[in-house]
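Annex B, item 7. Sequence and structure tokens for protein A, then protein B.
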Amino acid sequence: MTVRGAKNLVPKAMVAALLGDSPSVLRNVPEIKDVAVVTSLLKIHGVTVTKDEATGDLTMDPSGTKTATSNEIDTHAGDSRIPILFCGPLLHSLGEALIPNLGGCKIGDRPIDFHLDVLRHFGAVIDKAGPLGTSIRAPHGLTGAKISLPYPSVGATEQVLLTAVRAKGTTEVENAAIEPEILDLISLLQKMGAIITVGRDRVIRIIGVDRLNGYNHKALPDRNESASWASAALVTNGDIYVEGAAQRDLTAFLHTYRQIGGEFEVTDGGIRFFHPGGELKPLILETDVHPGFMTDWQQPLVVALTQASGVSIIHETVYENRFGFTNALVEMGAKVQLHSECLGAIPCRFGQRNFQHSAVITGPTPLVGADIDIPDLRGGFSHLIAALAAEGTSRVTGIELINRGYEKFMDKLTDLGARVEMNEIA
């Protein structure tokens, strides 16, 4: 099966099209809900978006950019958090931006405070607009700033990049995120004419320019979807060749995958993931920002660890409530205990705060079918692969959440041999 452009890059790359004074072309675009949401948001802001039906490439022309109402944005955004990233580009082109109250997966506290603080550093004025959202203005334009993030937040780093490239002067952001998707966004912005350097110790410097061109860019492949299918192969004693999977972006995952007992073969076009036989091995693992073990890789891997012989410990340090999905695994027969203590080598920011952010998994345990309601994107994928490995039939609701980040998910499951039936709910 094939993975295409990364969910954590493509919507942000689409937003970046607002910064150019000519059309942008984005290639390797997946058919996922987040892309549909951003397409709608761009259109209500006056951007012309056309899709090449043969290739799936998107062309975005920002020449008609205009202000949208909070109600329009709220209607088209749904549960997405992407509207917050429209602010910098809209402030540059229109002098104002509106954002509604934001949704997203319920995996932890992801306030927009980081984003608003970033915008204030550039000179934006924030006006609370009540229950409909927030109004942001730039009465004197935006000026570069020196910013130190309290945590290497991907979203806040994206906000800095999308705002700083056309701000007056130089911007320096310390403790920035340096995930592959961030570096790919930087590559895209450089194609537009931005001046950006990534230094040591998570420092990014941007020299603002007066204007940017459109871009032509191929999005990097989705490493999180690749890792998800790798875990699916492990859980189901399967064998999956993931076309498009890139080894360079999966180094930490591949190290862990082989430690557990999974195997893989790397080719120029992708990676074959498979269960080689024998027992899976337990491990102790902490999630972290890049280049550490991605939090999005953790949930599908936990399902595999329920089948490992022994006790595994996972310390989640990125999102404090990411283990909520394990309740369904316990109902299916898994042995998972959650703890509020930091069960890792280094205490994290969630310690002593009553967040159950560490998990102890004991295996192997046989899984049985159950009725499951999907809580979030990666947790939902984890539930599905647990159901495929379980004895009996599972009934799963909330499947639409998985479509946020997995292209043609149900078709891929069927192609891989899963027995799945979709029922419409009245």
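Protein B:
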Amino acid sequence: MAWLPVDALESGMTLASDLKGPDGNMLLPKGIVLTESHIASLRRRGVVQADVGSGQDEAMASAANLDPALIEASAQYVVRRFAANDVEHPAVAAVYEAAVLRQARELAAGAPLLPDIFPSPRAESMTDMFFREEGSVKDIVTSEVKLASFPDIYFKIRQILDAPTSSPSQVADVVSKDTSLSAKLLKLVNSPFYGLPQRIDSISRAVMVIGGQEISTLVLGISAMNAFKDIPPELINMRTFWEHSVAVGVYARLLGAAAGQGGAERLFVAGILHDIGRLVLFKKMPHAAVEAIYYAKANGLPLYAAEEEVMGFSHPLVGGLLLRAWKFPDALVSCVACHHKPASCAGNVEPAILHVADFMAVGMGISPPASFVAPILDAPAWERLGVAPERLGELAKAGLAQVEEIVSAFFPVRKS
């Protein structure tokens, strides 16, 4: 345990035990990553210290309790994910070590090593609606926009927020009319993602606590998850796809807090949306999309690099064009379009955060379907965050529970 005075706490630290106030009431749960607003609230409530533990000490203790043979088997299995990266790089090494420990714990619990999963052989016979020689990337996106308009609830909320006179109750009224969306929002708000000390039981209360702008951003991301429902199952497991997307969103939010950045909801939604271009490719160019998956596996490449080889472009470009056509905020468009090449969006740290978050998610084994190799970590992007490498293992572990809870809330497993 490592108890620090409140004035010594920093954004991005993780609570090692439940934090209670002077009156004995629970304020923040174990495992939550502290933000500046959390720390300011603790000062106001008269809290004098908090247990932030030592992530490195915990990892060493955990490794000591595991069978060395399991760790070795896990290392041989996990290292394949880092084939395109230099595992001597401090940030890469930190995520690699956290991933090996996670895999070793799963083996110790009796979980088998998962085999590589490819699209169904039937997918190879699918005919692309567009070919590179016949249509441009913009043609593909324009066709998709015409066929599937984005749910308009987000734009209704934006209209309210952009009006000279608006109130949180107006936002709550619009969201509350969509019962499915309301249920998912409340589950998210009450999850460890926020770590609120009291349960939020209404959308109006959520808007008051989280904020109208923030709720509208969350509505944007959650609604996007419903915009693609007709992808052939031979091509992709949608639950796995969104699990990876949620993981990137969670890690982006944690990294943003650790880097002292605001815009937590925007970073989370950027994570949810970062691979949406892949869904367009699966719909419009299924044969080429499958070919890129096999090419990536055969050559030990990240999927975006294989897409560029096979199609001449990759999913971040498609995703950025789609979001721009849907009139999404420019900050989200840039994040999605630049998440594999953050230097192409100079002056904005958020694409760099999203890039590192994507690397962490794949490295930890929360990968998009049929994607095996973690993206090449962009060293300048990593350095822009200003986060110590040893923090990554702690953040990687803290994010896992949040991902599992959010995914189970959004995609409950149906009992047969």
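Comment on protein B: The chain has a mean pLDDT of 84.
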